[in-house]
Amino acid sequence: MKELGKIILLGTILMSAGTFASEGDEAATAPESAEKSGPEDDKVVDDEADKADDRDDKASSEESSDDSSNEPGEESSKEDSKEAEDGAAKEGPSSLAMTLVMQTGGYVGLGAIGLGLEYGGVLRTEVMGGLTPSNIEGVDDIRQVALKSSVGYRFGLLGMDVGPYFGFSVIYHRGDDTFVKTPSKYPSKKYYPPTAVRTAPVIGVEAAAFGLGVFAEATALDTYLETYVRGKGGMKWTEFSTYALGVRFWAW
Amino acid sequence: MINLKKILSMAVSSTLLASCGKPAENSPWSQDVPYENLTATHLGRLAAIGGPASEFKVALVGDPQMVQGDFRAALKKIDEMDVDFVAVLGDMTDLGLRREWLWVGDAIARSRHPVLTVVGNHDGLSKGPAIYKKMFGEYNYSFVHKGVKFVMWNNNFLEFGPPDIGWLDGEVSSHERVVVMAHQPPGEDVMPTETLDAWSSVRGKKSYKASLHGHLHKFGFYNEAETDTLVYTVAQVSNAVFGVMTVKADKIIFENCTTECVEVSK
């Protein structure tokens, strides 16, 4: 299990580092992705999403003006290309999309459902409500709210949009025994950190097609990571991390 | 260039394989721990320990919160020592979260010696109190080992409410040689003056021989003159340090164990 965990972490980090570092190369080796978003899409990065939209529009208008001067044979192939582009756009996220996400595990609940926004296929923020029923774990139902934000990258693989992402979750659980603001019975405001809110870095991979994606994530709670570091290791990777599995739908 | 597709396949497949091995963690605030009644179980193990009643050793471990790796390392070192039992003097967790309790349970399960615990103030956060009760049992309990009564007392005022001084007094008064273990040492200013005074008066009883604590994250030892009680505080188990108490027929000796165990004097 230790080795598997290391492979997940290392693999995802390497993969992501590699993809972010060599996007141009990847675009060249991923014709589906390049075809989907237009000729300039290989320049798109998360912080230039607005510019990318403008470029797409410009490219689109240039394309239509070019069409008028094209030879008949070329026109046919352009139309085919445009159809493929439209089809691909339906399959995966475009520049701004709304998402519906459902997941299990990952500290967010046995079952969690939420909505989110995705920008440019790389930036995503989702809000989820999760429940862990008392008959499954513990004494009380545990209700949680989580905000998960991530940045990622996608490329074409076997007809799907596939790629890694990094992010973090902020998880909140309101209970009689948890607090955000230190209760007045304690001698100072910083006597304890908030016990109702925790954060967790997330790394994941996702495969999407036809507006539906499946994902797997590895995550570790801030307290658990700190315990691992301060205790100088001494624990297996699987002892301080967990995973989540889920599905995601793109609404538009 | 890195073969991205190959690495991606490896990451996905290994995540799925890992996920087959164990269930995902649903909530940090879950109370679902696989350990129950560890205090009773370990008292049973302790009762079976023989050897001379005239002298025995107890290993003392403090505040494993946030240093679980060191806690394991310390227990491993203690495994090679000749002690009758290990006492963990509270703050086993930092926020009382489920996974933190699992680590504690796992570490105790691996120990060769019986392990007995007192609850700490950090253990009183989140679901900690409920999980402690399920995993270990009562917050206040006592037992007699080789003629010495050990009183394990919850004195975490802010998290659990007023400590049960009456119970402590009764336990101390009912035996002629008593060692009290509680997380917070005498003089902690978070306790109301009346609680501190009442506790001081119990320490003044002749049978109250020693008071053992954690909480301060540093070693400390003195003989409280007004009560004639030995007060020992064990450092946090960071870097796998711990203490050892040797109970002899006529005296109690303490050692601080870092790279080696060194006797401490008053």
Any overview of this molecule?
The complex is a heterodimer of chains A (252) and B (266). Chain A has helices at 2-21, 23-29, 31-37, 49-69, 72-91, 222-230, 237-240; strands at 96-105, 111-119, 123-132, 142-152, 155-157, 160-172, 197-209, 212-219, 242-250. With 252 residues, chain A is α+β, with helices and mostly antiparallel strands. The longest helix of chain A is centred in the N-terminal third of the chain and has 21 residues, at 49-69. Chain B is of the alpha/beta class and 266 residues long. Helix content of chain B is 32%, strand content 24%. Chain B is built from eight helices and twelve strands. Chain B has helices at 4-21, 38-47, 68-79, 98-110, 128-135, 157-160, 165-173, 193-203; strands spanning 56-61, 85-89, 115-118, 141-145, 148-153, 178-182, 208-213, 220-224, 229-233, 242-247, 252-257, 261-264. In chain B, strands 3-2-1-10-11-12 form a six-stranded mixed beta sheet. Chain B has a six-stranded mixed beta sheet with strand order 4-5-6-7-9-8, with helices on both faces. The longest helix of chain B is centred in the first third of the chain and has 18 residues, at 4-21. Chain B is globular, with a radius of gyration of 20 Å. At the A-B interface, helix 1, strand 6, strand 7, strand 8 and helix 6 of A face helix 1, helix 3 and helix 4 of B.
Q: Care to give the gist of this entry?
A:
The complex is a heterodimer of chains A (252) and B (266). With 252 residues, chain A is α+β, with helices and mostly antiparallel strands.
Helix and strand topology:
The complex is a heterodimer of chains A (252) and B (266).
Chain A: H1 2-21, H2 23-29, H3 31-37, H4 49-69, H5 72-91, E1 96-105, E2 111-119, E3 123-132, E4 142-152, E5 155-157, E6 160-172, E7 197-209, E8 212-219, H6 222-230, H7 237-240, E9 242-250
Chain B: H1 4-21, H2 38-47, E1 56-61, H3 68-79, E2 85-89, H4 98-110, E3 115-118, H5 128-135, E4 141-145, E5 148-153, H6 157-160, H7 165-173, E6 178-182, H8 193-203, E7 208-213, E8 220-224, E9 229-233, E10 242-247, E11 252-257, E12 261-264
Parallel strand pairs in B: 1-2, 2-3, 5-6, 6-7, 7-9
Antiparallel strand pairs in B: 1-10, 4-5, 8-9, 10-11, 11-12
Helix pairs in contact in B: 3-4, 7-8
